[in-house]
Amino acid sequence: MSTRTRATRTARTPVQQAALLVALVFLLVGVLGFIPGVTTDYDSMKFASHDSGAELLGIFQISVLHNLVHLAFGVAGLALARTASTARTFLLVGGAIYLVLWLYGLLVDHHSSANFVPLNNADDWLHFALGIGMIALGALLTRRSTRTGLGR
User: Per 3-state DSSP, what percentage of the chain is helix, strand, and coil (rounded to 5)?
Assistant: First the structure.
């Protein structure tokens, strides 16, 4: 097998590269959520509760559960980035999940026990951006060219 063939077989498609990048960001955020200093009020972090006072970068309310969800999304993204089809699925389904989480954050009182993740306004709007961004990447990086009759 030639070097060129081997390189072609292992080259990642744009959607795979995007899924890998998104997965790595989720992993990074998940790990950073467990680092005092990067996470303010680290000692007030709860497993899962609206009372968790810890905030990633002093902005995004987090808990142990919230960090574990980020890590799980990262691991899932790494696994699903192996093929273009599964990378697309990760971006589209993951984006849809984040849009549902955005709606949940808007509808649930942030001071109620239903806000168990927990979420604050900054989280809500970050989830909206993530949802739209992931869906856009999944859709735009895999759209088929429908050029017909041009240059023929």
Answer: 60, 5, 35
Do 48 and 117 meet the contact criterion of CB atoms below 8 Å apart?
A: yes
Residue 78 host element (H or E): helix 64-80
pLDDT in tens, 124-141: 999 999 999 999 999 999
Q: In 80-110, which positions are buried (b, 16+ CB within 10 angstroms) versus exposed (e)?
A: bbeebebbbebbbebbebbbebbeebeebeb
Q: Retrieve residue 79's tokens.
A: 């696994």
Residue 147 CA to residue 131 CA, distance in Å, equals 29
pTM for the model stands at 0.85
The token duo for 108 is 């649930």
